[in-house]
Amino acid sequence: MAELSIKKKRPKNLDLTTIRLPLPGILSILHRVSGAGLFLCLPLLLWLFQSSLATPESFATFKAVAAHPLVKIILLGLLWAFCHHFCAGIRYLFLDVHMGVDLESARLTSKIVFAVSIALTVILGVALLW
């Protein structure tokens, strides 16, 4: 009972501009954001895929729209979200089996995930979009 009455008044930092997350924390947030973005864009991607397969004319229209630079940037962003979510998901599978849980390994695997996802985005973006 005495422990309940003695509560420590811990300082609260609610200023989001001053909070500095470690690299694994940034990776975790981006993993969630990329997953949510992919989930929300899934109906659009499925509609684009379906419309590109409907007729040869619709495929030609799809190619013309996909050739626009703004659309290419959006598709490149979706490609990065997929690559990042995939690579980070593999990292989290290893963390689930207690591999790479210590601080040094967590930082190293976070750097590897960022490097591999950006490299995959560049390679696939050049091969598929340009």
Automatic annotation (TrEMBL):
Keywords: Heme, Iron, Membrane, Metal-binding, Transmembrane, Transmembrane helix. The chain crosses the membrane at residues 29-49, 70-92, 112-129. One of its GO terms (cellular component) is plasma membrane. GO terms for biological process: tricarboxylic acid cycle. GO terms for molecular function: electron transfer activity; metal ion binding. InterPro entries: SQR/QFR_C/D, Succ_DH_cytb556, SuccDH_FuR_B_TM-su. Its cofactor is heme. Its main location: membrane. Heme binds at H85. It comes from the Bacteria. The keyword Mitochondrion does not apply. The heme is bound between the two transmembrane subunits. It is found in: Membrane. The keyword Cell division does not apply. PANTHER family: SUCCINATE DEHYDROGENASE CYTOCHROME B560 SUBUNIT (PTHR10978), SUCCINATE DEHYDROGENASE CYTOCHROME B560 SUBUNIT, MITOCHONDRIAL (PTHR10978:SF5). Part of an enzyme complex containing four subunits: a flavoprotein, an iron-sulfur protein, plus two membrane-anchoring proteins, SdhC and SdhD. The complex can form homotrimers. Belongs to the cytochrome b560 family. Membrane-anchoring subunit of succinate dehydrogenase (SDH). This is Succinate dehydrogenase cytochrome b556 subunit. The lineage of its organism: Bacteria, Pseudomonadati, Pseudomonadota, Betaproteobacteria, Rhodocyclales.
